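Hi, here's the filled form for the chain we discussed.

Project: internal
Contact: R.S.
Residues: 584
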Amino acid sequence: MTTVNRRKFLAGAGAGLGGALTLNALGAAAPGRAAGGFWAPAAARADALAGSTAGTTLEAVAVPAGPRGYQRLTAGPGYPVVVRTELAPARAARADRRRALASLVQMTDMHILDAQSPVRVEFVHPLIGSASRPQDLLTTQGLTSLVGRINALAGGPHSGRRFDAVVTTGDNTDNHEHVELDWYLTALSGGRFTPNTGDPHRYEGTQDSGFDLYWNPESRHTDSFKRAGFPVLDGYFDAALAPMSSPGLSVPWFAVFGNHDDSVIGTAPSGIPPITDLYTGNLKLGAPGSAAEAEQLQRALRTDPAAVPGIVGRMTDPARIVTPDARRAPFTPRQFLAAHFDPRHLGPGPHGHGFAADAPETGIGYYSFEIAPGVVGISMDSTNRGGFVDGSFGEAQFRWIERTLAAGSSRYFDGDGREVRTGADDTLFILFSHHTSDTTGLLIPDPENPAEPRHSGAELVDLLHRFPNVCAWVNGHTHANRVTPHPGPTARQGFWEVNTASHIDFPQYARVIEVVDNADGTLSLLATLIESDAPYQLPYDDLSPLGLASLYRELSYNDVNKDPDNMGGPADHNVELLLASPSA
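And the returned structure, exactly as it came back:
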């Protein structure tokens, strides 16, 4: 086990964006050591572990085992830490002074998925890669394996501070079905479930269709995926659909709403009767007979969802008859909120997983919560209830964010740039949403409140610049790793945007974020990517849940529609993000 030196920081480590540190270079002051800076030390408690790189991408990352073609995976060198100094300088010996303030894990875009649902359009995957992935049947095994990793780590690799919280930043489900919602909640809170719908004894999806367009894992016949090297796996369906258990997270977890948690396949608006009826019916959409039919359907899904049933009815290949299942019915946003209050899904808490007690009645999906003493999370709802992919923020939520930030700021700036001083106690803020600053420009009206103005991500960035206590905006949606500085009018008004890759598409990461006070006029966000606890490679006859989780990662790497840009670069992986302390 490689242990982080918690006292000795590499002198002069702030070499800017290219400053890669050795694995043992980062650390925090000893837990009981008094430190100056933003706060006096909190009361002593058992919140520290021996900081270690083990089990993180500081130690190892999944890489292909061969040069080309279908690849098995193996352990490659860990990612170095890149010190990012765009918003503040990196001063020498800061590890000797620093104190950990908070430690959390971001999970995002798990896309727990009913792969046998009648309302899927797998046949458009050559146009929209996310319409069908070879690993679609294994999302629950993959998520449970990630839960195992988080529980095993227990704390941050740099500071050793025990995790204060886990936050999911949306797209928890793929097609907002009640059964997907139950699987996601059970995986995170603990329990036993069966990731199967329809016929309890037989798989009824596309992967036994014999169509060349899909991977048919139990068939010896050639298909487009087998020509790319995908394996034949006897017993795959029985194993993937078998009852399984999740230990549940051991850390309090909080939820954020995503577009896939609200709309048809994350793309089309909800509540269109012909499509709603398809969810619980016995007809699984047929395949287009031509590229023109596929393109017509793809265009209708994005611009005219009501036309979809008619287009499907005219397709060359007829729909398949499948076993109907009432659990596939789509949930509403209020039902999503209410499900988080179900006692079966309490897990480590909190009750409601962040949502206000009246959220199932009001439909309000945003809230604030204490991550740790002096560090508050703001969970935003960026999903536009009008449907479609991108998001925005309603006026009521936008003004609530402003009031929440003002209430935790001893000083901030008004809309004209004038400094405002208050008697408030200072709080650091980390904001969470599903959408990113550049995917929140969908300003169409909210069907429930059509007269309410909508605000874009650019407007939110401007708002956050007014509050020096804002450290970061953490989000998902893009399925990519990307870390962006947002410099403000003064050094103290900058913040970081941290965008993390999904857990359905390769590289299947989550991210640990440790907030530390360097006691030198700066703060650092120590952001470390983590993978699930599944081995990088197991024999194909190991179809246990852990073996399937390993296969889940391998299939995602080899997906013919994989986007290599999702990986990001070194400056988007393991990073130290410096920013000016608002108290300096």
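Let me know if anything looks off before we file it.
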